Structure formats: C-alpha cells, structure tokens
Automatic annotation (TrEMBL):
<feature type="region of interest" description="Disordered">
    <location>
        <begin position="1"/>
        <end position="23"/>
    </location>
</feature>
<protein>
    <recommendedName>
        <fullName>Metal-dependent hydrolase</fullName>
    </recommendedName>
</protein>
<dbReference type="Pfam" id="PF10118">
    <property type="entry name" value="Metal_hydrol"/>
</dbReference>
<dbReference type="InterPro" id="IPR016516">
    <property type="entry name" value="UCP07580"/>
</dbReference>
Length: 297
C-alpha cells in the first residue's frame, strides 16, 4: 500500500490506522479526442437494440450540464489545496471540458437521428438552478456521489465487453474513451471533499456523504428510467413489455446496475476512498487495445 503523502489529508479506516490515498504515481492524462464527426451514429447504434440505445442516449443527454456542474463544484474548493491536488483538479477540469464537448456533439447527432432530448436537458437545467443558493459544500458532496456513479459504470463498461457488443465502433470508442478518463480522475472530487472538510469530524463527514448518496441514487434512477422510457416512447415502444425489457437490461443482461451494486455499497463503509480499488490496469488495457482505433487521430 502506498504511504500517505503530506499533500492530501485522508479518512482512515475504522479497522486500520493506515490511510488509502490516491496513488502517488497517478497520472491524469488529457486525451483530446473527437468522435463521430464523419460518421454519425444510427438511430439504434448499440447493437440495433432500442433499449440499450435509449439508456445511453438518456445518460448522454445529462452530461453537458452535469459535467459543467461538477467542474464548478470542485473548483469552488481549490483554494488552499496542496500542489498535487491542485494539479489534479486542473487535469480533472480539462478532461471534463472535453467530455462535455463530445457529449454535446453526440446529443446533436441523437437529435439528428430523430430523438427529442430537449425535455431531458430542460429538467437537468431546472434541477441545477436549485443548487445556485445551496452551500457550495453540498454541491461538492453531490458531485462526489455522482462521480462515484460515473466511476462505477466506467469500470463496468471497460471490464465487461458485453455492454458495447455490436455497437457502432466510433460511438463505442467515444464511450470507452470517456470511461478511461472517469476512472483516471475518480478520486479528485473525493480528495477535494477531504480537503474542504478537513475540520469536520469523521462522523459528520460520513453522515453528509452517505445521506447525499441516498438522495443522488433516488434521483438518478428515477430520472434515468423516466428519460429512457420517454426515448423509447418516441420509437413507439411503450407499455409493460418495454418496462420489463429495460429492467432486464439493467438488472440481468448485461446488468450494469446489478454488477455495480457492491461498489455502490462500499461508498458507505467507514474509511472509503475511490482508490481502494486500483483499476488502472483497465486504462492501460484500453489504451493498448485501442491505440490505433481510439487514440490515434
């Protein structure tokens, strides 16, 4: 286990006095890539499956405004951050800006394929408007919980090829590129939280982050399911049959929700830190396997 550096104050496990920090040798790489400009995705780009396509389109529709929120929430607490964390925040911001640009482009292509995603974007805008008058530490807690969601799904997307089996290659490459960088910066919001709450008791820190995760989880699944069903309805696919198909997609095969559940539970454990699970091997594997198809431009 890597020894704790003096640059980041971290929670200690209830079972151990040893900290679990972000790896000292972690490099957050800016991969400035563009996808799909010359070959826009088809209407059902993910294995000709309307359910899988609708789920990912619904996710993507939330990313531009959501990632802008993440950036501002983290930047609000960078003053006084140790040099290592400050550098990681800058890299986090640059990665998220690139993600925003690519999902704006992807969302426009989804609209060109015939989907109306304005309703999803409007609701995200309205929800984020409610955060303007909240304490900035609450927004950081929400960002930290949502970043855990993106990291969990990113790991699953890279570890399990079933998620993008049969997908149009360029679009699948965009999602894998995004997943690589979500894993890479998965500890930044959390380490910023530890920096911003260094004067809090461990119990207060745990209570606030746990309550926020419960709230985020409720809102995340309520709205993503609603959004996915709305997109399916635009294809004329409605009723109990398609609700069951969506449930099966999320819980059975490929079952992203079922498969990330243990990682979700780990968030509530005392002493949790995103880098307790070092999955940088997935980044190296993807960078290697897709160096020609994904990374070379």
């Amino acid at each position: 286990m890597t020894a704790m550096t003096p640059t980041i104050a971290l929670e200690r496990s209830a079972a151990s006095s040893k900290p679990v920090p972000t790896p000292a040798d972690l490099t957050i790489t800016i991969r400035d890539r563009r996808f799909g400009r010359n070959a826009p995705p088809g209407r059902w780009w993910l294995n000709n499956d309307p359910v899988a396509t609708a789920w990912h389109n619904a996710l993507s529709a939330t990313f531009p405004r959501g990632e802008a929120f993440f950036i501002e929430s983290v930047k609000a607490h960078r003053d006084g951050a140790p040099p290592k964390l400050e550098a990681e925040i800058r890299a986090f911001v640059k990665q998220e800006i690139n993600h925003t640009r690519e999902h704006v482009a992807f969302n426009r292509m989804a609209e060109a394929a015939g989907y109306d995603i304005a309703k999803i974007d409007k609701r995200v805008e309205e929800m984020l408007a409610l955060t303007k008058d909240r304490p900035v530490i609450v927004n950081l807690a929400a960002t930290m919980a949502l970043e855990h969601y993106t990291a969990m799904m990113a790991h699953e997307f890279l570890a399990n090829p079933a998620h993008f089996a049969g997908a149009e290659p360029e679009t699948a490459n965009m999602w894998r590129w995004h997943a690589i960088e979500e894993i890479e910066h998965k500890g930044v919001a959390y380490d910023t939280w530890l920096h911003a709450t260094k004067g809090w008791s461990r119990f207060k820190r745990w209570k606030v982050k746990s309550l926020m995760m419960v709230i985020v989880t409720k809102n995340f699944f309520t709205h993503r399911v609603e959004d996915t069903l709305d997109l399916l309805a635009q294809d004329g696919l409605t009723g109990a049959k398609w609700k069951w198909k969506l449930a099966a997609y999320l819980l059975w095969k490929p079952g992203v929700v079922r498969r990330v559940f243990p990682a979700w539970v780990s968030y509530f454990l005392p002493g949790f830190h995103p880098w307790q699970h070092d999955d940088r091997a997935l980044i190296a594997k993807m960078d290697s396997e897709f160096s020609d198809a994904v990374m070379a431009r």
